Amino acid sequence: MIYIAGDNNSYNIIQNLEKYFKLKNLDYVNLGVKGSNEDMKLEEFIPDVVTEVLKNENNLGILSCGTGVGVEVGANKFKGIRACLATDEKIAEWSVVYDKCNVLCLAGWGAEEDKVIKIVKTWLNSEYDGDINRLKMFEVFDSWK
C-alpha cells in the first residue's frame, strides 16, 4: 500500500499522484489535504503516513510540502523511516537501491507534473541492492559524535 500526504503547497502533486495511481491500479490512501482550500500542518500528517509505513515493510509513503525538506526532516525523526527528498529520477532510484528509502519526499513549489510522475514511477520500480551493512551503519548514528 502507498500512503500519500501533503499540505496545501502540494495539493496539485497529491492530485496528480492520485490520478496516476488510479490509472495504474495502484493501491493508495491519501492522508493529507483533499481540497485546494484545505490546509494541514506537517505534524498532522507526517505521523499518520509513517505509522502506516512502519506497520508493514511492503508499505511505502510519499510526502510533500512546499520545499519537500520539511516533510523529509520530519519523517526521518521516526525510527525505521528512511525518507529521501528526490528532485530527479536518479536520486529517486539510488535512494532505494543504496539506502532502501521507504518514504519519498517531493517539493510542491514549482513542481512539473511530468517530472514528478517520472520521479515517483522510478522510485516505485527501483529495488534495494541488499547491502545490509550499509543500513546497519545508520543504526549506530548516535555514536557518530
Explain the overall architecture.
- The chain has helices at 11-23, 42-55, 69-75, 89-97, 113-125, 132-139, and strands at 2-6, 28-30, 60-65, 83-85, 103-107.
- Helix 1 (11-23) links the parallel strand 1 and strand 2.
- It is built from 6 helices and 5 strands; from the N terminus they run βαβαβαβαβαα.
- 44% of the residues lie in helices and 15% in strands.
- The mean pLDDT is 91.
- The protein has a single domain (2-143), classed as 3-Layer(aba) Sandwich (Ribose 5-phosphate Isomerase B, Chain: A), CATH 3.40.1400.10.
- The longest helix is centred in the middle third of the chain and has 14 residues, at 42-55.
- It has a 5-stranded parallel β-sheet with strand order 2-1-3-5-4, with helices on both faces.
- It is globular, with a radius of gyration of 14 Å.
- The chain is of the alpha/beta class and 145 residues long.
Features of the shown structure:
globular; 5-stranded parallel β-sheet; 15% strand; 145 residues; 6 helices; Ribose 5-phosphate Isomerase B, Chain: A; alpha/beta
CATH fold field value: Ribose 5-phosphate Isomerase B, Chain: A
Broad CATH class: Alpha Beta
- The end-to-end distance, rounded to whole angstroms, is 37 Å
The percent range for helix content is 40-55%
Please count the beta strands (DSSP E, at least 2 residues each): 5
Strand order of the largest sheet: 2-1-3-5-4
Report the total helices: 6
The portion of residues forming beta strands comes to: 15-25%
Low-pLDDT residue intervals, each spanning 5 or more residues: none
The helix/strand order is EHEHEHEHEHH
Global geometry: globular
What profile does the largest beta sheet have?
5 strands, parallel
Indicate the radius of gyration in whole angstroms. Answer: 14 Å
